[in-house]
Design a protein that fits this description.
Length: 293
């Protein structure tokens, strides 16, 4: 989750990078420029709350990639962070180049990623058949966001019902929700998959319906996986579909951590991903982005 800080001339982004930030307003549009202090070759993300603006605005800072020994541009480019629907509209905007629509899809997954960001992203790249060259099939981004929207609609329907019920319960004096109802706020961890390359292969809306039904009945906390109905241990992800028991903090083995770190770059760059016939196909070693350790 991006770190939120108050800005007063500078900002530290989760300890990775420090930057001096300046804000100017032209025709009512804020423009934010920051100069980084570090020399790390990585991209940094944060949400920065700027005090003093007429309307509270959340901004995401995109650090310019550094090449070894030289900074391409000594500044950060900042975009306004908006809602899931707004980012989904950008994904569909054919007036934007595909490489401009891809970051909007990323923001959508950050807003709602039921398997966790990485596993949800990998799932969408497979099911929507997003090619490495986005210009070859820009509509693949639309297919990805449509699947994510449908899954989010399932969750929103149940969440809105819960919100209305909680409003009535509060009026009746029940101030705290039941412990088993915490999942209503787990938009990014409803079915957390610690290994981004092991996740359910069915469409997200189908998985959401099945999973939310299990949460409502309480079956999600049983030793039978609510997604694939396979047996699982109380402290480990499902061996069949990779979904972890709810609320569980998984400590991954060191070799698995190394493999995930190695393969995530390939997932993000969409190298090694199957394209033809990926929809609905259960993953195997041959269809993963990278070889298992």
């Amino acid at each position: 989750m991006p770190h939120v800080v108050q800005v007063a001339g500078g900002v530290q982004l989760r300890g990775f990078v420090q930057a001096e930030v300046s804000v100017s307003v032209a025709d009512g549009v804020p423009e934010i420029v920051a100069k980084p202090h570090d020399t790390h070759g990585r991209r940094h993300d944060a949400i920065v709350m700027f005090a003093g603006l007429a309307v509270a605005a959340a901004h995401r800072l995109n650090a310019v990639t550094r090449k070894r020994g030289a900074l391409e541009q000594p500044c950060l480019y900042c975009r306004l962070v908006t809602s899931f629907p707004a980012q989904a509209r950008r994904v569909r905007d054919e007036q934007l180049a595909p490489h401009q629509r891809m970051p909007a899809l990323r923001e959508c997954v950050l807003h709602f990623g039921p398997y966790g960001f990485r596993a949800t992203w990998h799932h969408l790249m497979l099911t929507a058949r997003v090619p490495q060259d986005l210009d070859a099939d820009p509509n693949s981004l639309v297919r990805a966001v449509v699947e994510l929207e449908k899954a989010r609609a399932v969750w929103l329907e149940h969440r809105d019902t819960f919100t209305e019920r909680r409003r009535r319960e509060k009026a009746e004096g029940r101030r705290s929700p039941r412990r088993s109802e915490g999942w209503y706020s787990w938009a990014g961890r409803l079915a957390f998959c610690p290994d981004p390359m092991r996740h359910p292969s069915e469409p997200l809306p189908i998985v959401m319906e099945r999973l939310i039904g299990a949460y409502i009945t309480g079956d999600a906390w049983s030793l039978r996986c609510p997604v694939c109905a396979g047996d699982r241990a109380a402290s480990e992800p499902c061996p069949a579909c990779g979904v972890a028991p709810p609320g569980l903090a998984i400590a991954l083995p060191t070799n698995l951590q190394h493999r995930i770190a190695r393969d995530w770059h390939q997932i993000w760059q969409r190298t090694g991903l199957p394209v033809d016939g990926a929809v609905g196909r259960r993953e195997t070693a041959a269809t993963r982005a990278g070889s298992p350790a």
